[in-house]
Amino acid sequence: MFRPNSVLVLAIMFSSVLSLVPAYAQEDFATADWYHGALDRGESLRENASAIAAASGGVARAVSLPGAADMAFGYATGDEPVVAFLVRAIEVEGSYWSQAVWLAMMHALAGAKDTPAGGGTLFIAYDDAMPAWAVVPEPGDPVARQASLSAALLDMGVRAVVVIDCMERPSRLTLVAAAASRQTPLRVVKALRAAVREAGVSYSEQPIVDFYAAAGIHAGSVALEPWLMAGVPAIALESTRGDDGATIDVGVLALAIPARVVAAGSDDDVHYFRYPLPKGVVTIGDDGIVALLIGVVASLGVLLALGYPPGGRRIEREAPLLTLPVLRETLAALAQSLAAFAGAAALAGAAISALGYFGGFDSTLELLPGDWFVVLAISLRLAATLALYYTVSGLGSRLGIHGNHGRVDAAKAAMWALAINVGLAVVYLPTAVPYLVVVLALVTCTAAVSAASGPSLLFASALALPLADPRALAAVSMLPNGYTSVGESILNAGFPGIIAMAAFAAPFGLWLVAASSPIAYLRRGRKTFGFWLAGALIFALAEAVIRSWAGLA
Q1: Is 242 left (phi over 0), alpha (psi -120 to 50) or beta?
Q2: Cys staple from 456: which of 290, 327, 442, 498, with CB 3.0 to 4.6 Å?
């Protein structure tokens, strides 16, 4: 029998459980209603935005940028806008959730009693299909230098642009911060991180996919690309389904963003590095990268002055850092790495064509349909590349091309090859510098010592494991030749891409040779030449079978 105090206890317990439910698990009826209204009642984005502005009592006012040909319409809240929220005006399949999120944000800011601290906002619907020459700025137009919205936003001094790109119910948001070999300024990333945390919104980042996008291997967000290419400090919000499937309250997020953007300052650091951890992301800014580079180089200078890498005999420790054998090893490693990568790609292509001719498999290189197919295909390609590396090395040994060098020479050569990679990364891919300088330090300190070389090589490989994340390798984007994945971009890389991969891998090949060889000589694969060649052929055939079969699945 229930007594009043029992009911009270149950009520308290029930309310306590409810209080533990995070804010993002609550259904945001405004967002869902606008989405279903666009689908079921045919309400247009312009009609809904106009209704919000009319009901705001003047808080949301219409804005016009005469020089921006690709702007469909827009509204502003507050003065001196610091943030612009952008959405595609064209109503095509997949765009309705983006427009619903945009409307929910506008509704929240337009209905706020006080303007959020930090400055005003712009809500702009753009038409990226509108040609730039459709509207030509007149001499008296103070806003736009060119007939584009990106130029107008830059002229206005907007500090951050948030591109809404939600293709499904936003139960969880993903911050996309790279596209077309460019990265979103770090201050914008930090501002959005702080805003979503303050709003209690479930979110995630994709640092590895963004790394590939910044490296030019992956196109990144199609919606974000034109803004970053124009130099606009933009970030994209994509949607994914959370565990509960409820729609998050994006209005709360919109209220938190302006102040966070202002507090983040105006420094445009686009060379930062993000490394994923099981819980969270480690971010190293441009200043940190420079400090790390200087610190490692200075430390290596001291270590080299003290006789590192050690060689086991005094005469080897006192030998010059760059000798003819060391230079020879460095150049040979680069040549062997290039031959291995190019040969593995050629063998895989030949095997796929042969399967298509003799076995009836589809020889066209279609998108691989699953995460693990991508990882398996790349693993087989790497195995074939390693086998070919030892094949080429063994052939050179049989022909007498290699000199009689020891492990110390290979260690020094690996150090020089890594130093070359660091120099190239500073110019072309600063986001890779932190990893390369750490590897450079490990090579210098351990590569010539057999007891430490193997574990250090395994540690360096483990640090690179996030790059093999199946979700990142299977990430799909639009390139000029159609949709493609990160994994397929790697597998089908052209000769410039093969050169880049070979240059990156050459020091690791030398390090592997040094780690697996005694101090007096290097194991080149002379006796096992046939074994490695057979392995390369088998791995290439296996890759061809997997990819051809996956294309038919």
Answers
A1: beta
A2: 442
Residue 300 binned pLDDT confidence (cut-offs 50, 70, 90): confident
The pair of structure tokens assigned to 316 is 């080897």
Virtual CA dihedral for 314, 316, 318, 320, nearest 10 degrees?
180
Q: What is the pLDDT of residues 132-141, one digit of tens each?
A: 444 555 555 5
For the cut 50, the answer to whether the pLDDT of residue 114 exceeds it is yes
CB atoms within 10 A of CB 231: 13
Cβ–Cβ under 8 Å, residues 496 and 323: no
Residue 45: Cβ within 10 Å count:
24
What's the rounded Cα separation, in Å, for the pair 57 and 399?
A: 85
Quote the radius of gyration of the chain (alpha carbons, Å): 28
**Size of the chain, expressed as the number of residues it contains:** 553
Kind of pairing, strands 273-276 and 81-88?
unpaired
pLDDT at 180: 87
Going 363 to 367 to 373 to 375, the CA torsion angle's sign is: positive
Q: Where are the beta strands (DSSP E) in 441-503?
A: 476-479, 482-485
In single-letter form, the type of residue at position 144 comes to A
Q: What percent of the chain has pLDDT over 70?
A: 80
Say yes or no to pLDDT of 156 above 90: no
| Distance between CA atoms of residues 312 and 488, nearest Å | 45
Measured distance CA(7)–CA(1) in Å, rounded: 11
Distance, CA of 300 to CA of 508 (rounded, Å): 18
- This prediction has a pTM of 0.81
End-to-end Cα distance, the chain: 61
Phi and psi of 424, rounded to 5°?
-70, -40
Q: What DSSP line would sit under 51-71, residue for residue? A: HHHHHTTTSEEEE--TT-TTE
Residue type, position 190, single letter: K
DSSP 220: B
Beta bridge partners of 165: 238
Greater pLDDT, 384 or 223: 384
Give the span between the Cα atoms of 126 and 72, in whole angstroms: 5
